[in-house]
Amino acid sequence: MRVLAGVPKSHVYRLVRSGQVRVNSGRARPDRRLKEGDEIRVPPVRRTEAGAPVRPPDAVLDRLRRAILHEDHHYLALNKPAGLAVHGGSGILFGVIEAARAWDRYDYLELCHRLDRDTSGVLLLAKSRDALRRAQAAFRDGQAQKRYQALLCGRWQGGSRDVDSALLKNRLMSGERFVLVDDQGKPSRSRFTPVARYAAATLCEVNIYSGRMHQIRVHAAELGHPVAGDRKYGHVEEKTPLRALGLKRTFLHAASLRLPADGEFPALVLDSPLPSELSDFLKKLGPEL
């Protein structure tokens, strides 16, 4: 690992298992303990230069091709899978935008907005600068309608609730980003509407009227009902019962996006059904109350 610094650990183990790393001219298992005087041969490995773009694997490119929800002259809309970042950076070699560009089908392609890495659902990309400006203006001016589905921990009391709390981005010593409710932050508003109630959780439709980082997750935690599966916000004990049932991701899905007509751009209506791993999990919660 020290000699091949920067090479993925899985690749190093593959070199050992295939016999390319030799100890005293012979094959060696990865768990072999070295002794003073052992002679180790490490094969040359081609490494990507720092800062050089990384081409996503073909499996990722194919998966995103199958995830196309809509495409026209102006936009490409994808049903983003959970676990895939929207763009590379901070230790992430590639994301959705890099993969879509790697198809080599577009002269111009940019993200119109973002989704958290563990959030699935509608993601809009622009195929021209004018289309990008139109979408960003709709988001900025509150003309875009964004609806999410989120499973919240605990029994919800009453009907819809609005959360109007300013959010401030923070960075921990580790470099991890964290968002706080703080009057010094940016105005943020979300509306939570219960659509199905279970013994230990509530499925909510969430409309957001601003697009802040981690907005739904932070607002839900502030209500005392953190998003199920969220590893960052909310108390651990509130989320433990649902994790024990096998939930392996954040239960947050971008279900729909609406953009109004604007000049040459027609109205855009995009919908994404709840993915099977989330709809199947709801069945584990038992009958609705």
Explain what you see.
- With 289 residues, the protein is an alpha+beta fold.
- It has two domains: 9-41, no CATH class; 58-284, Pseudouridine synthase.
- The protein has seven helices and 15 strands.
- The protein has helices at 9-17, 58-65, 96-101, 129-140, 215-222, 236-243, 276-284; strands spanning 22-23, 26-27, 40-41, 68-71, 75-80, 110-111, 120-126, 145-153, 161-164, 167-171, 177-181, 189-197, 201-208, 252-259, 268-271.
- Strands 4, 5, 6, 7, 8, 9, 12, 13, 14 and 15 form a ten-stranded mixed beta sheet that branches. Strands 2-1-3 form a three-stranded antiparallel beta sheet, with no helix packed on it.
- The protein is globular, with a radius of gyration of 23 Å.
- The N and C termini lie far apart (54 Å).
CATH architecture of the largest domain: 2-Layer Sandwich
| Percentage of residues assigned to helices | 10-25%
| Head-to-tail CA distance between termini | 54 Å
Structural class: alpha+beta
* Strand portion: 25-35%
CATH H level of the largest domain: which superfamily? Pseudouridine synthase
Stated plainly, the CATH topology of the largest domain is called Pseudouridine synthase
Number of helices: 7
Q: Give the number of DSSP strands.
A: 15
Low-confidence stretches: none
What's the pLDDT, averaged over the residues? Answer: 90
Assembly level: single chain
Number of domains: 2
Main CATH class of the largest domain: Alpha Beta
Over all CA atoms, what is the radius of gyration? Answer: 23 Å
Helix-strand sequence: HEEEHEEHEEHEEEEEEHHEEH
Please state the overall shape, judged from the principal axes of the Cα atoms.
globular
Main beta sheet: strand number and arrangement? 10 strands, mixed
